[in-house]
Specification:
The complex is a heterodimer.
Chain A (H helix, E strand, L loop, with lengths): L4 E3 L2 E4 L5 E6 L6 E7 L6 E7 L2 E5 L6 E5 L5 E5 L8 E8 L9 E2 L3 E5 L1
Chain B lengths: L4 E3 L2 E5 L4 E6 L4 E9 L5 E8 L4 E4 L2 E6 L4 E6 L8 E9 L8 E2 L3 E6 L1
Parallel strand pairs in B: 2-11
Antiparallel strand pairs in B: 1-3, 3-8, 4-5, 4-9, 6-7, 7-8, 9-10, 9-11
Chain lengths: 114, 113
């Protein structure tokens, strides 16, 4: 069965650079979520989209922005990268409106900022 | 304060034993979910229990939910070395956003062969 696809899987950037992470949800899933997981930490909710509209926003820095496109894939744009942005970034998708439906997580993008 | 706190933070058992992990949360919830994460890998959904349910089973997994105590437990029976992973509970707050899961700190389970 198709799963959530994230690209790239690994990314190394320098401070003050920008990064774009991509997420391709499971076909027919209409909701996408982004999470950040620091080393040894629990996943922290960043932002979510339902039917291409932002549905909720968590602890996402102003330097980050995201959107969901007409084909339902989503991109997380990160600018002015800081060392503290080094983390695993997960995308998840679900079919239906909200977290009462099971979220399927992608394998994550490991971002390292040097 | 953190919604969803796992207890214990780390658990080491022998293969074949049962493992019990607990999760407490602070606000009323719609659902509670358990996820598993192998080191540095993606999160795998294990089970979802709704606030009006008290117990749910899936294979070797048994989840209980006590909304009066705002707590849940995950029991893995007859554990295997392959069960070694971190286990997280995640909740969505009642009356809150439908689009946000709040994860707990996780329990690192080590099953020794």
């Amino acid at each position: 069965a198709a799963g959530v696809i994230q690209s790239p899987r690994h990314l190394i950037k320098e401070k003050r650079e920008t990064a774009t992470l991509k997420c391709y949800p499971i076909p027919r899933h209409d909701t996408v979520y982004w999470y950040q997981q620091g080393p040894g930490q629990d996943p922290q909710f960043l932002i979510s989209f339902y039917e291409k509209m932002q549905s909720d926003k968590g602890s996402i820095p102003d330097r980050f922005s995201a959107q969901q496109f007409s084909d339902y894939h989503s991109e997380l744009n990160m600018s002015s990268l800081e060392l503290g942005d080094s983390a695993l970034y997960f995308c998840a998708s679900s079919l239906g409106q909200g977290v009462t439906y099971e979220q399927y997580f992608g394998p994550g993008t490991r971002l390292t900022v040097t | 304060s953190q919604q969803g706190e796992e207890d214990p933070q780390a658990l080491s058992i022998q293969e074949g034993e049962n493992a019990t992990m607990n999760c407490s949360y602070k606000t009323s919830i719609n659902n509670l979910q358990w996820y598993r994460q192998n080191s540095g890998r993606g999160l795998v959904h294990l089970i979802l229990i709704r606030s009006n349910e008290r117990e749910k089973h899936s294979g070797r997994l048994r989840v209980t939910l006590d909304t009066s105590k705002k707590s849940s437990s995950l029991l893995i029976t007859a554990s295997r070395a392959a069960d070694t992973a971190s286990y997280f509970c995640a909740t969505d707050a009642k009356g809150g956003s439908n689009y946000k899961l709040t994860f707990g700190k996780g329990t690192l389970l080590t099953v020794n062969p």
